[in-house]
């Protein structure tokens, strides 16, 4: 198992983190040593094991259909980096 | 009273209730000491003047029926606090001021405590040494240039240095118990679902759990009693009968069956830790507990499993930090450019590394080999515990495979850093409660901890065992106040 | 292109191609609050006024599921004759977009709440069954607005987190007409159930359209393209037509079709590749660790079954059997829950045959002209029923009824009153009619003579004259009888 620079580029794209060439090499090294250690799991046969879906020993609670959250526009937008009273604003999306 | 900050929580509560101390005196004492302790770098955000006002207000109309009447307290900066900056130790949240309060901290303020500040931690709780924080290293009060552990490093350090009488941390793979062990303090990771995750900056949702940190087991029990509550705002919060842990605390553990897992005797573990463990076993026997050798066969798979599950969840949990709604935003030519620069500049190296690992193990073609495999092994690890708990009541292990290490010692070797959590991680994977108590010192005089792992929802039992052993050990932290000039 | 009654085929160079279509319909669940948060779902609110901390993905915010949305999804599943899964799992679909605050959409991937089902379409050449692959619950995204500012995109999160049902069909559809019928049928079923209002203008119902083509008779599927987010039936049909022809042209040209996501440009009437989004499409689905598996009991499902109203197919069957309607009439009357309610209210107290004709004929035409829904009809079911009874008991003629109807359309007036006020009551008194008829014959002596000498066609002339003189009020049947005797 080896993670190459192409893979690093791909996952950096997926995770929306830009990575310089230099950083990519360091990351590839780190990830390779981490995955070497993770590969230990391959020692185990798990074909007949049900994967765990939740560790909480309870069932999903259901909420009543009620509107409780009021208009929080000011509160919600207050922390946003760009000034606008009504909207979140981001640099133009290019399609 | 000049020694206010030396008092335990229980003593402070008693003195405030008896009106021997006012909240303001106590609050001021901890603030003064915190001011003198800047070198430890435990605080990210100070809330001193508001805290003093609150203390004054408390004293004017004291409600002495509360569990934490007028008690000052600093908390890990992973808990969202209304109108007080919350950073998660990250540049990306450097300027974030929540308009809401986490359930756990709300429970604390409801019992009369007062927020004096937000404590340093590894960025998004990802680390075992507090070295990944955007706000810099934290010093362990035990010795200069020693890490306090992590991720709740600021909490552990502030607690051990008596800058706060009690505190709270979060524990995803050992982030409460390991720093408690490194600083000679007590730290409890409750059962998954015991404390609400609402308002806590998420790292890995299926593993994260808030918990109390204190100078002794009794204080720890009291704080657990305060923070643990069923919360309908958290779908994974569990509605079970919660004890009044401090009231029901007892050192009578006669007949309790305590398991000793052979798999925790890991290769290369220092002799001192082996000795400490033996000592712990003897103490437990002295208290009337029955010691039983057990096996948790999948223990060695816990860390690899953890380093798939936790980064996978984190890669998704941290997607919301994109520069759009709050926090840091880098300039970008277009939306995607903005995302990539914001996240590259806003997250530190360890966080980026884990996001990358998580993204990779979930990506098309690798999901089954990694994520699904890990969830299956996680099931096996949980089954190991379920199996032994048919015969025993609790498990005794060392908290960490070593004492605190030097700042910078493991920084460039992620795997050796990860190995530090080898004894704590299985507990998170299985959703169980675990407590670390200080049990001795190594040859350098650094504290070492023992961990007691319980059955799900059985916090009372491990608190009792910890309480009994604590009394036998009679541990004294060796802190010289070297940082105070 | 060739079209016969049963098949939609595309012809090129003496070869015929069949079009294979599958739809992923996104239907907004009718609910007060959102799927995982307590903010409101109302359409048309001011931007970002229906956004909770959860919807905007603030740190530490957690989803808590809305029980009613689960019920709505299960009811819809029952309406689609589908298997209800007692255990389903919510997954995160991870991707970055300005209007997706969490950086993931909570959806259901491997274990949806509803499994396989079917709907039956009434096509001109008979019924056709369309398979349903699955129905799952998911969150809607917010809205990106690109045209408010030259350099920036504005984001409104009001819709973020609203519950959607994604209904995935099997690739059973073969023509734009079938797509039309399928969407209308889904819409009708959901409106009967009250699970989705089906309002396409407001975006409550939209679809991703999967299109592929294959040579007629081939069993293998061709490479498909997905046309994203089409929000009207007309556009779906146009997009399919364009896309199918594009694919046939490519094949005929010896080229390969790329499996890709495309966009329908409604102005240019063409589909376009959305390649920019393509490379980032690895959604990294995994079970949402903030939620647990959703488990519903048999009792829960049975209770919901007992709340299911009569659905269009059953209603149609009943209308045909009980009221002797033609399948055509029944189809029209059951297609929409409001129409069928109106019809059933009218026939409570009046003749079925007349009611059917009046609703499908006069009422629909009049509503259409005024661009009104049946719920907005100026004529209530009660008053239409009265009008029909006035015809039935001979108080007014069908012709007069139309005049009365027109006046009723101006405001919901009681037809009885209109008839009285305007003196429109039918003249059925034989003596009065005889007097009238005598006068008409007297005034047209020469024509009467011609008639008697064999020019029988003139009978119609006399009927017309009598009706004219009576101001249309003479009972036509009686007029006929008396005229025959007198002449």
Explain this structure.
The complex is a heterotrimer of chains A (95), B (485) and C (487). With 95 residues, chain A is mainly α. Chain A has a domain at 5-43: Orthogonal Bundle (Histone, subunit A), CATH 1.10.20. Chain A contains three helices and one strand; from the N terminus they run αααβ. Chain A is flat, with a radius of gyration of 22 Å. In chain B, helix 8 links the parallel strand 7 and strand 8. In chain C, the strands form four sheets. In chain C, strands 1, 2, 3, 7, 8, 11, 12, 13, 14 and 15 form a ten-stranded mixed beta sheet that branches. A three-stranded antiparallel beta sheet of chain C has the order 6-5-16, with no helix packed on it. In chain C, strands 4-17 form a two-stranded antiparallel sheet. Chains in contact: A-B, A-C, B-C. The B-C interface holds B 80, 86, 88, 93, 96, 98-100, 102, 197-202, 204-206, 232-236, 312-313, 315-316, 318-320, 322, 324-326, 335-336, 339, 359, 362-364, 367, 371 and C 53, 56-65, 92, 94, 96, 98, 101-104, 153, 155, 282, 284-286, 289-292. Strand 1 (88-91) of chain A pairs antiparallel with strand 10 (152-156) of chain C.
Question: How do you describe this structure in short?
Answer:
The complex is a heterotrimer of chains A (95), B (485) and C (487). Chain A has 95 residues and is mainly α.
Q: Helix share of residues of chain C? A: 25-40%
Instruction: Indicate the structural class of chain B.
Output: alpha/beta
Q: If you average the pLDDT of chain C, what whole number results?
A: 92
Mean pLDDT of chain B: 97
């Amino acid at each position: 198992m080896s993670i190459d620079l192409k893979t690093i580029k791909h996952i950096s794209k997926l995770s929306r983190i830009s990575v310089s060439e230099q950083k990519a090499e360091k990351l590839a090294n780190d990830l390779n040593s981490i995955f070497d250690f993770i590969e230990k799991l391959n020692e185990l046969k798990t074909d007949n094991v049900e994967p765990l879906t939740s560790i909480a020993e309870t069932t999903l609670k259901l909420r009543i259909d009620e509107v409780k959250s009021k208009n929080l526009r000011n509160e919600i937008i207050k922390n946003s980096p760009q000034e606008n009273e009504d909207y979140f604003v981001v640099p133009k999306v290019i399609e | 009273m000049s020694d206010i900050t030396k008092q335990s929580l229980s003593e402070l509560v008693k003195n405030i209730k008896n009106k021997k101390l006012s909240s303001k005196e106590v609050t001021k004492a901890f603030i003064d000491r915190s001011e003198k302790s800047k070198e430890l770098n435990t605080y990210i955000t100070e809330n001193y003047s508001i805290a003093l006002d609150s203390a004054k207000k408390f004293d004017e109309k004291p409600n002495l029926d509360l569990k934490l009447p007028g008690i000052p307290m600093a908390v890990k900066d992973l808990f969202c606090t209304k109108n007080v900056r919350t950073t998660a130790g990250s540049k990306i949240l450097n300027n974030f001021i929540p308009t809401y309060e986490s359930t756990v901290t709300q429970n604390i303020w409801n019992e009369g405590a007062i927020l004096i500040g937000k404590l340093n931690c590894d960025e998004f709780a990802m680390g075992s040494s507090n070295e990944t924080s955007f706000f810099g290293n934290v010093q362990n009060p035990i010795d200069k240039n020693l890490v306090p552990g992590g991720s709740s490093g600021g909490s552990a350090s502030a607690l051990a240095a008596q800058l706060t009488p009690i505190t709270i941390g979060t524990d995803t793979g050992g982030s409460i118990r390991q720093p408690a062990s490194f600083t000679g303090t007590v730290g409890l990771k409750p059962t998954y679902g015991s404390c609400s995750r609402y308002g806590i900056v998420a790292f890995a949702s299926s593993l994260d759990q808030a918990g109390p940190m204190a100078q002794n087991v009794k204080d720890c029990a009291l704080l657990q009693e305060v923070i643990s509550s069923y919360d309908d705002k958290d779908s994974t919060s569990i509605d079970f009968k919660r004890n009044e842990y401090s009231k029901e605390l007892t050192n009578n553990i006669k007949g309790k069956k305590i398991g000793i897992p052979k798999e925790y005797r890991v290769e290369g573990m220092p002799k001192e830790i082996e000795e400490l463990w033996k000592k712990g076993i003897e103490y437990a026997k002295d208290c009337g507990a029955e010691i039983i050798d057990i096996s948790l066969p999948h223990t060695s798979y816990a860390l690899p499993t953890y380093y798939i599950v936790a980064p996978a969840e984190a890669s998704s949990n941290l997607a919301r930090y994109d520069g759009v709604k709050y926090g840091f935003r880098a300039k970008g030519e277009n939306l995607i450019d903005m995302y990539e620069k914001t996240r590259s500049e806003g997250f530190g190296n360890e966080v980026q590394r884990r996001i990358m690992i998580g993204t990779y193990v979930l990506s098309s073609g690798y999901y089954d080999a990694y994520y699904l495999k890990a969830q299956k092994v996680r099931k096996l690890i949980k089954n190991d515990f379920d199996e032994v708990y048919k015969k025993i009541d609790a498990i005794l292990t060392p908290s960490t495979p070593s004492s605190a290490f030097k700042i910078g010692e493991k920084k460039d070797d992620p795997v050796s850093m990860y190995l530090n959590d080898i004894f704590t991680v299985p507990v998170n994977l299985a959703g169980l409660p675990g407590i670390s108590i200080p049990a001795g010192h190594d040859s350098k005089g650094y504290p070492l901890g023992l961990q007691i792992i319980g059955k799900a929802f059985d916090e009372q039992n491990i608190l009792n065992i910890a309480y009994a052993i604590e009394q036998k050990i009679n541990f004294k932290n060796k802190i010289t106040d070297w940082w105070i000039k | 292109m060739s079209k016969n009654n049963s098949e939609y085929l595309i012809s090129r160079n003496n070869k015929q191609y069949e079009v294979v279509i599958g739809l992923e319909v996104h239907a907004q669940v009718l609910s007060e609050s959102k799927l995982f948060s307590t903010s409101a779902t109302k359409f048309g609110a001011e931007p970002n006024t229906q956004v909770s901390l959860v919807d905007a993905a603030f740190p530490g915010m957690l989803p808590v599921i809305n029980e009613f949305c689960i019920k709505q999804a299960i009811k819809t599943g029952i309406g689609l004759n589908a298997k209800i899964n007692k255990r389903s799992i919510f997954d995160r679909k991870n991707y970055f977009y300005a209007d997706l605050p969490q950086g993931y959409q909570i959806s259901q991937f491997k274990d949806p709440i509803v499994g396989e089902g079917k709907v039956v379409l009434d096509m001109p050449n008979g019924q056709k069954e369309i398979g349903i692959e699955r129905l799952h619950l998911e969150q809607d995204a917010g809205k990106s607005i690109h045209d408010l500012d030259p350099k920036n995109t504005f984001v409104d999160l009001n819709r973020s987190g609203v519950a959607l049902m994604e209904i995935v069909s099997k690739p059973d559809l073969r023509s734009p007409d079938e797509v039309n019928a399928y969407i209308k049928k889904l819409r009708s079923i959901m409106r009967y159930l009250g699970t989705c209002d089906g309002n396409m203008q407001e975006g409550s119902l939209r679809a991703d359209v999967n299109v592929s083509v294959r040579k007629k008779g081939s069993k293998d599927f061709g490479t498909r393209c997905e046309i994203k987010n089409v929000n009207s039936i007309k556009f779906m049909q146009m997009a399919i037509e364009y896309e199918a022809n594009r694919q046939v042209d490519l094949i005929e040209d010896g080229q390969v079709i790329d499996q890709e996501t495309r966009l329908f440009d409604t102005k240019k009437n063409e589909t376009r590749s959305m390649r920019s989004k393509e490379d980032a499409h690895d959604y990294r689905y995994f079970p949402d660790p903030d939620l647990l598996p959703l488990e519903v009991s048999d009792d829960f499902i049975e209770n919901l079954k007992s709340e299911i109203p009569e659905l269009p197919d059953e209603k149609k069957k009943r209308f045909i059997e009980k009221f002797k309607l033609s399948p055509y009439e029944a189809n029209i009357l059951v297609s929409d829950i409001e129409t069928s309610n109106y019809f059933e209210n009218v026939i409570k107290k009046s003749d079925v045959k007349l009611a059917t004709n009046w609703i499908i004929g006069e009422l629909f035409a009049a509503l259409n002209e005024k661009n009104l829904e049946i719920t907005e009809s100026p004529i209530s079911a009660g008053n239409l029923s009265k009008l029909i009874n006035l015809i039935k008991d001979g108080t007014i003629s069908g012709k007069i009824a139309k005049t009365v109807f027109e006046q009723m359309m101006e405001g919901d007036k009681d037809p009885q009153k209109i008839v009285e006020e305007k003196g429109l009551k039918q003249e059925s008194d034989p003596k009065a009619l005889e007097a009238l008829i005598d006068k008409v014959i007297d005034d047209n002596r020469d024509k009467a003579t011609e008639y008697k000498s064999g020019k029988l066609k003139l009978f119609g002339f006399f009927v017309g004259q009598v009706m004219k003189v009576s101001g249309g009020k003479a009972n036509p049947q009686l007029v006929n009888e008396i005229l025959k005797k007198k002449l």
